[in-house]
Design a protein that fits this description.
By secondary structure, this protein is an alpha+beta fold. The protein has a single domain, classed as YaeB-like fold (2-Layer Sandwich). It is about 40% helix and about 25% strand. The chain has a 5-stranded mixed β-sheet with strand order 1-5-4-3-2, sandwiched between helices.
């Protein structure tokens, strides 16, 4: 089992989802929590063209292609960065936009973690 942490940006996206979609995303997040780094395709895949080792949960929900961008932090926790609905969008445009947003949020998260702002569940700090 791996601990799953959600950013504020992910929670804002998740809270705005229709119930049918939030349930589908919750199932995917539970799989990530259970399988951790072993979670593979088609449930999860690496994202090409990133500066960081970002991954995506691939969620199908009532005809929608939902994507949850995530990464593993230095403590090996899975961090849910942001989500999006790829349905009906040009794939290249969707990923270009989502990668830019995800990398900005991830950089902020790592900087906060370096300052000790995410040590709530860890003993001893460094």
């Amino acid at each position: 089992m791996v601990e799953v942490i959600a950013t504020d940006e992910f929670l804002e996206w998740f809270d705005a989802l229709e119930k049918v979609h939030s349930l589908s995303v919750a199932v995917a997040v539970t799989k990530l929590e259970t399988e951790g780094v072993a979670l593979g395709h088609p449930a999860s895949s690496a994202i090409n063209g990133c500066s960081f080792a970002l991954r995506e949960l691939r969620v199908k929900s009532s005809g929608h292609a939902l994507r949850v961008f995530y990464a593993f932090d230095p403590q090996r926790d899975a961090v849910l960065i942001i989500g999006g609905d790829k349905t009906g969008q040009n794939s290249d445009d969707f990923y270009k936009r989502m990668i830019a947003v995800s990398e900005r949020i991830w950089k902020e998260y790592l900087a906060e973690q370096a300052r000790g702002e995410h040590d709530d569940d860890q003993e001893g700090g460094e």
